[in-house]
Design goal:
The chain is an alpha/beta fold and 527 residues long. The chain is built from 16 helices and twelve strands. It has three domains: 106 residues, no CATH class; 194 residues, Type I PLP-dependent aspartate aminotransferase-like (Major domain) (Aspartate Aminotransferase, domain 2); 122 residues, Alpha-Beta Complex (Aspartate Aminotransferase, domain 1). It is globular and about 75 Å long. Bound molecules: pyridoxal-5'-phosphate. This is DgyrCDS12720.
Length: 527
């Protein structure tokens, strides 16, 4: 594989030429069937070790580059040119490839990967590469088991129990009476919450379907994650029956509007049943007032969900958990350890206050998997409460990382990020040409416009907005072409495109923040 374009920015190191290529030569004309489990001789076992050690070397090399600022964050190519360059190398043929080629394939694949663990990668809510979590993921892959029954995942099942109980304890629920499951991401965790809420109000739907359903209506802030609305689509509730509640100038749900919409729903004869409060919105990082929302939920008998997929980690910090004040009054919580806590992808938990609700809502007792006459305590078979059959082991890496850091290590990781967010905010205040979307952001999302000189003195209004709308996408495209750093942008409501800086990478230090802002100025100055 040859990259079509050579790297332009010479202050950055070129990717190395294959340093270990010579040692790979010994895998020329060696094929997969010469390794375990096909070749069980001493020779087969030795080749297996040698091969895997080479793979680990390649991975270590990548990890080091992730942490080395003299390497770029990415080597961007447009899809068509990457396809032209790599296409022929990606084909699957009738002939097997030898293990030398397989090693080259691993190395070349990583070459074009975006270094999401790089200290200057700010593009997503999940950034960074935690090495203990990575080690956990490697073990998970080697153990290669399924989470659906205790019989094939005994240790991991116990770990799941312990970690879910710990998370519920941190939320502030009494443990002996609660429930939860690890799901493939926050979007699915949110789906679980809506599903359980609907089960509570109308359990007959499980067997009889939508024809027995009254008209149900749910509520969430207009800035909540799209997966809440999509749950309404998936579950046959309908997106029109997922009402977006207005937000205030800080992007927080307006409780008055929530109550108004509930009253309106009741007046129409429909049944309000669910409200989701967001703990750290995806764009602005706003925290809905959970306590006040829970008052309304109690008054009208609604299920209260807290989607803190992003902000959940703040619960681990004594100084910052007040952002989620009232969360113990929720019926369910979505919390993604793969975001703020830094576990590797993916790792998301949905926690429920009512014990057994997931089981009641989802179980079908398939006889080939969840036999009721097993010789052990079958309450340890967790699979039948999930909406999946097979479930990936997402627990081990989280458990291992939590062991290695302790509550205190995670707390200081989160406190440090909050300090870094304040550092960025101060920088933005001191510099000319930068403007906040909301003043004094309370979390790790720092949203701002860069206003180039040519736009700076234009009066506020449509013309200025139209010009400003083009700035962030233009800077981002140049940023990706040079590959030095990455940060996201988007519009919001009527607001023109702005940068959404996410401070969630534990590798980042103040210098990297300076670098980002200087890079934006350098690229955007003359726009
Ligand atoms: C990221 C996010 C989600 C979705 O989580 P995935 O793991 O990407 O599915 C849901 N809600 C909020 C608030 C989020 O920030």
């Amino acid at each position: 594989m040859q990259s079509e374009k050579s790297l332009r920015n010479t202050c950055f190191r070129e990717e190395d030429k294959q340093p270990s290529e010579s040692s790979w030569k010994k895998f020329e004309n060696v094929f997969n069937y010469e390794l375990l489990p096909y070749e069980t001789t001493t020779q087969g076992s030795k080749k297996t070790s040698q091969f895997l050690l080479e793979v680990v070397d390649i991975l270590l090399d990548y990890i080091k580059k992730n942490n080395d600022r003299s390497y770029k964050v990415l080597d961007f190519h447009h899809p068509h040119s990457l396809r032209n360059a790599l296409g022929p190398c990606l084909n699957l043929d009738d002939d097997p490839k030898d293990l030398e080629q397989i090693l080259i394939d691993c190395k070349e694949t990583l070459k074009f990967c975006v270094k999401t663990g790089h200290p200057r990668f700010f593009n997503q809510l999940s950034t960074g590469l935690d090495l203990i979590a990575l080690a956990g993921e490697w073990l998970t892959a080697a153990a290669n088991t399924n989470m659906f029954t205790y019989e094939i995942a005994p240790v991991f099942t116990l770990m799941e129990d312990i970690v879910l109980a710990k998370m519920r304890d941190i939320i502030g629920w009494p443990d002996n009476n609660c429930d939860g499951v690890f799901a493939p991401g926050g979007a699915i965790s949110n789906l679980y919450a809506v599903l359980a809420a609907r089960y509570r109000i109308c359990p007959e739907i499980k067997e009889h379907g939508m024809e027995v359903s009254p008209k149900l209506v749910m509520f969430t802030s207009e800035y909540s994650h799209f997966s809440i609305k999509r749950s309404a689509a998936i579950l046959g509730i309908g997106t029109n029956n997922c009402i977006g509640i207005k937000t205030d100038s800080k992007g927080k749900m307006m409780v008055k509007d929530l109550e108004k919409q509930i009253e309106k729903t009741l007046a129409s004869g429909a049944i309000p049943f669910f409200v989701s409060a967001t703990g750290g919105t995806t764009v602005l990082g706003s925290f809905d007032p959970i306590w006040e929302i829970s008052d309304i939920a109690i008054k009208y008998g609604l299920w209260l969900h807290v989607d803190c997929a992003w902000g959940g980690g703040a619960l681990l910090s004594k100084s910052h958990r007040k952002l989620l004040n009232g969360i113990d009054r929720a019926d369910s919580v979505t919390w993604n350890p793969h975001k703020l806590m830094g576990a590797t992808l993916q790792c998301s938990a949905v926690l429920m206050k009512e014990k057994g609700i997931l089981e009641k809502c989802n179980s079908l007792r398939a006889k080939y998997l969840f036999q009721q006459d097993k010789h052990y305590d079958i309450t340890y078979d967790k699979g039948d409460k999930a909406i999946q059959c097979g479930r990936h082991n997402d627990i081990f890496k989280l458990w291992l990382m939590w062991r290695a850091k302790g509550d205190s290590g995670l707390e200081s990781q989160i406190d440090k990020l909050m300090d870094l967010s304040l550092y960025l905010q101060k920088k933005l205040r001191d510099k000319e040409g930068f403007q906040f979307v909301i003043n004094e952001p309370e979390f790790l999302n720092v949203c701002f416009w860069y206003v180039p000189k040519n736009v700076r003195y234009i009066e506020k209004g449509c013309r200025r907005d139209a010009l400003l709308d083009k700035v962030a996408p233009k800077i981002k495209s140049m940023m990706m072409e040079t590959g030095t750093t990455m940060v996201g942008y988007q519009p919001l409501g009527d607001l023109p495109n702005f940068f959404r800086m996410i401070v969630s990478n534990p590798a980042t230090i103040p210098d990297d923040i300076d670098f980002l802002l200087e890079e934006i100025e350098r690229l955007g100055e003359d726009l």
